[in-house]
Amino acid sequence: GRNQIINNNLITYYLDGAHTTESIQRFLNWFINLKQNDGSFRNEKNVLLFNYTGERDPKSFLKILMVFKTK
Description:
By secondary structure, the chain is of the alpha+beta class. The chain has helices at about 20-40, 60-65; strands at about 5, 10-15.
């Protein structure tokens, strides 16, 4: 999915099928904007799961995602 939200009343999942550094950046921008607007950044624990395949460099993805820690 692209920018998909699934909520089961216990956990909210924010899903995106990003598979390039550009799409990871778009996902991160969407997620940060969403969380800042709903005011839940400080009230929730957020866990990031991601997968990479093929010749992609996971370090390039993590470098982009580390900015989340400072927001």
